[in-house]
Amino acid sequence: MIAVKIAIVSALVLVVVKFVASFLGKGNIPLLNQAVTVILSLFIGFELIQLGQAVIEKIN
Q: Is the pTM of this model over 0.85?
């Protein structure tokens, strides 16, 4: 469980670093861009799964 929390906090820190870098005009870092894209894609996928489960539960 602690590993999951560390991974989530690390991902949030990476997204904040990307936001700050973009704000300061240094946001065009390919590795950082790819990492943030993966993190946000995983988050959206997780939320869509949660939404699908809620809809299925509501129907049943």
A: no
